[in-house]
Amino acid sequence: MQHELSFRDPETEVICNEALARHTTWKIGGPADYLLIPKTKAGLIEAIQTLTSQHVPWLILGKGSNLLVTDKGFRGAVIKLNRALDFIRIEGNMAHVGAAYSLIKLAALTSKHGLSGFEFAGGIPGTVGGAVYMNAGANGADISQIFQSAEVILESGEVGRMYADELQFAYRHSALQKKRAIVTEASFQLAYQDSDSIKKRFNQNKETRMRTQPLPLDCAGSVFRNPPNAYAAKLIEEAGLKGVRYGDAEVSSKHANFIMNMGHARAADVLNLIQHIQEKVHAQYQVQLVPEIIVVGEK
Ligand code: FAD
Q1: What is the maximum alpha-carbon separation in the chain?
Q2: 127 CA distance to ligand 1 middle (Å)
Q3: Rounded to an integer, what distance in angstroms lies between the CA atom of residue 246 and that of residue 160?
């Protein structure tokens, strides 16, 4: 650990050497030098300004449901937002939601209010901030279709607002993936609809997910992006890779694009398995599978 971090805001909790396996849905990942948990937005701004001025690398952590943290962990500070930004305000057909709010809770609540737009998100276990960053989606819908704007904090600590066109949403992509900015709140424009038909679509999506995905085991959802005009899961399955295992990391036999932690998988096991899948699928179909999950940490 090279930096001594201290904050004026006593509300920011600082935990040293925190195992990130405790904060990812894969339950994999070595320690972060620091885990910072600001309890207020002012605390978050101060934390970012301190880290930037001291040149400490930082990473925002949502639910850790799309992250593979390496076994050596993260050198620098990982910032977890949940206490500061876990809120929702519904005003008419607009939902203004804190970045740490659960996407699953958001989908359930808006469908209860007769507001359509989040039915696709009923089983995506991330936060609103992670969903905007990833342009999360399912069943032909995604965040970009309902997103209006987001409040962001820049590296300087300056607070700004980004609108849909600036975020350049595409398949599992947003401009945030190239910009150092933290989403603190996002606003979504939903449509009033008959509550029963919203609930029906919401429940159908949930049911499909339960039927086709190996839940509730430890995983990070789809490991690879779907290539143009193809499904990664189908290519992996047809290459005969279901059930293939490195250490405790295994290709799910229920959904071939999921890699499960069957007990004590290490990031190295998952990375070896990813490489193996890429090589086999390329050899058979000349398709290069590109990971959807984000790998962070010291190599
Ligand atoms: P994290 O994994 O914590 O972080 C992901 C990235 O977002 C990181 O780079 C992080 O720095 C950044 N980030 C997080 N919060 C912020 C913020 N506030 N500001 C700026 N950057 C931020 N995804 C889908 O799209 N569709 C699915 O159907 C789907 N199904 C899944 C099923 C399962 C069982 C699991 C485990 C995952 C699934 N996922 C799916 C993947 C994952 O849930 C989504 O990508 C989700 O949006 C990630 O949110 P998170 O809060 O967990 O982000």
Answers
A1: 57
A2: 7
A3: 44
pLDDT, tens digit, for every residue of 115-150? 999 999 988 999 999 999 999 999 899 999 999 999
CB 11 within 8 A of CB 38: yes
User: Which residues are within 8 A (CB) of 180 and not within 5 positions of it... i.e. 6 or more apart?
Assistant: 154, 155
Nearest CA to 23 out of 72, 75, 81 is that of: 81
pLDDT digit string (tens) for 235-255?
A: 999 999 999 999 999 999 999
Phi first, then psi: give them for residue 38, nearest 5 degrees: -70, 140
CA of 60 to the centre of ligand 1 (A): 11
Which residue among the candidates 18, 46, 250, 292 is catalytic per the annotation?
Answer: 292
The pTM assigned to this predicted structure is: 0.97
* Active-site choice (18, 222, 250, 252): 222
- C-alpha distances (whole Å) from 265 to each of 48, 70, 131, 213, 255 are 32, 11, 26, 19, 18
Measured from the Cα of 152, ligand 1's closest atom is 19
**Going by CA atoms, what residue is nearest to atom 20 of ligand 1?**
182
Neighbour-count burial for 3-40, b at 16+ CB within 10 Å, e otherwise: eebebeeebbeeeeebebbebbbbbbbbbbbbbbbbbe
The C-alpha atoms of residue 166 and residue 162 are separated, in whole angstroms, by 6
